[in-house]
Amino acid sequence: MLSVIIPVYNERATIAEIIRRVDEVPIDKELIIVDDCSTDGTRDIISQLVSKYPVTVVRHEVNQGKGAAIRTGIRHVRGDMFIIQDADLEYDPVEYPKLIKPILDGKADVVFGSRFVGGEEHRVLYFWHSLGNRFLTLLSNMFTNLNLTDMETCYKVFRTEIVKGIALEQDRFGFEPEITAKVARTGCRIYEVGISYSGRTYAEGKKIGWKDGVKAIWCIVKYGLLR
């Protein structure tokens, strides 16, 4: 079974739609929503969705960040693999089957969904944001000795037993370089699969900023040097 962890913070415009899309994917799955203390009415919408969809809902009483929400979600995972799903519609759940295929085929322990490989469609947006993602991936690869093309992608699938034994610390977007460095250190089999991407603008609610990029560099160096 695939567990889908959905960290949510102030996503009232999209939360119902992403839950509908995830629910419609024709695979054996469970949905785990972690509401990171939303204040825009998202919590009320989630309460209404519980009666319509088979979901597990966990709530933070204080906003802690995406990484903290994912850690909370991992504690509730019952599936033998799990994926992280943002609630903002940038990533399409219809791609779950191809993302989990390398694991189901016995080839992989972890699968990254890359926005930069393959011929999948993607929305054209910010040059500097794209360049920043590529730089962070390159820097991460230098420390992990991997050849990933998209370390910062939301779509990462893990065999649950791999991550259950890893102590995670980062509360915000530093989760991405931290988990990448720590799974690389296990020597597990990592695959990439090309995915589509419909990025949103800051006016549409995108939350990551330049300060998160600086923190990502710090995390890459910190977890890349730790042994």
TrEMBL record:
SUPFAM superfamilies: Nucleotide-diphospho-sugar transferases. It comes from the Bacteria. CDD domains: DPM_DPG-synthase_like. Residues 3-164 form the Glycosyltransferase 2-like domain. This is Glycosyltransferase family 2 protein. It comes from Geoanaerobacter pelophilus.
